[in-house]
Structure formats: structure tokens, C-alpha cells
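Reopening this one. Same input as before:
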Amino acid sequence: MEGPPPVPVTLSGASSIQGPYFSDRDRIADRIISAINHTRHTLDIAVYSFTQPDLAAAIQAAHQRGVKVRIVTDEGQSFGHHSEIGYLRSVGVPVRLSEGFRGRRSLMHNKFAVFDGRLVETGSYNWTTSATSYNFENAIFIRDLKVSARYEEEFQHIWAQAR
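Same output, byte for byte:
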């Protein structure tokens, strides 16, 4: 571990939390799509597995309207039969693959997105058809600049080591 441990971020009075949302009843994918559709400048996504075509279509549309989108995902999951990663790469979305921080025996197991550096979505929810239709999953949306900055810092760290 490099340097002192980070100080936990405390939400300010101007912050808000939406959720928690649960996959069996709260339409998490639709909430993420809405956040993507409202994103104007940057969208950084760190997600273990990505097989949900509606989320991929929303990302492609954001990319086409000029949003700077970057995705980092687990290398092993990116080659799965239903993975949307190949498609997103084919339409020009920058994607990097990570093996986790210990190499081949570890995972990039995060599940978060940072929208315009202001809103974070995080939780157990993988961006997959299974998470949407079969699994018990959860997500929250946090609107806070300090929290967003901390997640953005982690995204940059993962992005830098991925290929």
C-alpha cells in the first residue's frame, strides 16, 4: 500500500443519495440509462461484467453525442459470449481490460460509474442481463463532489494499470 490510508469522505449538506434500489423491483438499468442520457461531458465506468444491451445502446448514444466515455472492465469477463465490450469497442468507445491488482489470479470486481464528475452509481449491480432479470442486486446514486472525486481517483488508478 502506498502512502497513508485515505481519509473517508463525509457527505456535505449539498449532497444527496438516491436509493437504495433493488433489482427485483426498482428497475436499476432504467435508472442508469436515465443518468447516462443526462450526462453531458464525461462518463467513467468500472464494471466487472457487462452484458446488458440497453445499457450498451445508451453508452453508444452518449459517445455519439460527444460525451467522453471510458470503460474499464475485468479482462476475463470481457470475452464472455454475451459481453457487450467487443461491441462498444467496435463503435469507438475507449475500453481497457484489467486483471485486478494482483494479476491473473485477481479480478477487477468494481461496479461503479461517475457521471460528469458529480454523480456516482455504485453497489453490487453488474451491468448484465442477469442482474436486471434474475439476480438480487442493489445500487445507490450519490450526488456529491467529494465522493465523485474519490471514485474518479479510483477510476484513474484502475484505468492507468489496465490495457
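So the earlier flakiness isn't reproducible anymore. For the record, The chain has a mean pLDDT of 91.
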